[in-house]
Amino acid sequence: MTTVVLSRRSLIVAGGSVLATGVSGLLLPAQAQSVAPTRSMSGGANNYRKGAPIVERIGKGGFWMSGTVRRAGDGAPLAGQRIQIWAHTTEGQEHEPQSHGATLTDKDGRFRLEMPQIVPIFGQPHGHLAYDSGEFRTVFLRPLMRSARDKSLEGHFVLQPA
Amino acid sequence: MRLVKATLIWAAVAAAVGVPLAFAAASDLHEYRGWIYIIAGFAGIVALGLVLVQPLLIAGYLPGLPGYRGRRAHYWIGGALVAAVVVHVGGLWISSPPDMIDALLFVSPTPFSPWGVTAMWAIFAVALLAAFRRRLALRPRTWRLAHMLLALVIVVGSVVHGLLIEGTMETMSKAALCALVLAAAIKVMADRRVWRKGATPRGESPARQ
Fold it and tell me: Is residue B209 very low, low, confident or very high in pLDDT (cuts 50, 70, 90)?
């Protein structure tokens, strides 16, 4: 619990620096049209567990989490980046280890991981994704499903150097 | 005839609260939840049901509980409402502490959370005011106005909170219960004209209060 609070606190700091970077970007015409880094979403780090293993798929599967990872500025795809994924599913609650897994992006910066069906929890059907490998700044996402019956969900990252 | 009317009124209230509870009990989401989370969810639905009953009690609309008996019941049901909210929030906290902490701090990504948390504080405030009303020597009119404003916050907060949640409650029965909660509160407030100066609710003399 303490680690989660601490990590979110550091996120606020990170968010602030993202803002600062954005503002300085506005002051420099050369960077004005660059791809802006993704900011962490509110509640994105909830029930995060550090260091979930890279897996073939989470549990029995049946649901697809996918997305892209790009570099801030030029928007170039980032290959081999580790993305961690977790959610409340038909096979486990958000905080339980079996609900967590990670995967790597391919050469086009895409990732795709099969996992059990996400079910609504805390009033919304949603998933969690994290980039937390350290080379770039940590980002936590918490995308919502349009319908609880959806069979897939996406999360997209634009990362900036740490 | 009176017995028939009384039976019908009680049956309607029982259905208004019981049907949404029954639909929620049949939700397949329970399969994927721990028992503490399940209890917390039901405590929320029960709390919404109690918010429906409260104005009906105080106005003496429920057969068998007119006047003083209705007010006593209103007082104790108010206590039960506090208990239900504590179980609701406590259970959710145990089930997912970071999500509950975000909600209580008004920084959660879920749009329904601030409505529920605001209603919770209003419920606690009314309960404290009611408990210490005499010790605080609140004037009847001050008390009525404070209670009415807080009741308004509770009713609107609870209804919006409930409607925005995607959970175990079935959509139609939830919407019906929410509509009844709103209607009951509006009807009783209009009937009792709590905001008027010198209003004498329930036909009693102001001197008694």
Answer: very low
Give the Cα separation of B81 and B17 in Å (integer).
Answer: 14
Cα–chain center distance at B128 = 16
Residues 6+ apart with CB under 8 A from B156: B115, B119, B182
Question: Helix, strand, or coil here: B209?
Answer: coil
Of the candidates A89, A122, A125, the beta carbon closest to that of B96 is on A122
Read off the pTM: 0.84
Q: A19-22: which pairs have CB atoms within 8 A and are 24 or more residues apart?
A: A21/A160
pLDDT at residue B89, rounded to an integer: 98
Give the CA dihedral A127, A69, A22, A132, nearest 10 degrees: 60
Residue-range domain boundaries for chain B: 2-194
The domain locations on chain A are 2-159
Closest C-alpha to B20, from B49, B56, B50: B49
Percent of chain B with pLDDT over 70: 92
Of B33, B95, B112, the CB nearest to A123: B112
Give residue B193's pLDDT band: very low, low, confident or very high (50, 70, 90).
confident
pLDDT tens string A65-85: 999 999 999 999 999 999 999
**Residues B108, A119: C-beta atoms closer than 8 Å:** no
CA angle, A6 as apex, A114 and A52 as ends, to 5°?
25
Q: Is ipTM over 0.85? A: no
Reported CATH class of domain A2-159: mainly beta
**In angstroms, what CA-CA distances link B49 with B42, B80, B85, B87, B195?**
11, 11, 12, 15, 25
Residues of A in contact with B27 (CB under 8 A): none
Q: What are the backbone angles phi and psi of residue A34, rounded to the nearest 5°?
A: -75, 165
Pairing of strands A63-71, A110-115: antiparallel
Residue A62 vs residues A58, A89, A105, B6, B201: alpha-carbon distances, Å: 10, 11, 20, 53, 60
Cβ-based interface (< 8 Å): residues of B facing A:
29, 31-34, 92, 95-99, 101-102, 107-110, 112-113, 164-167
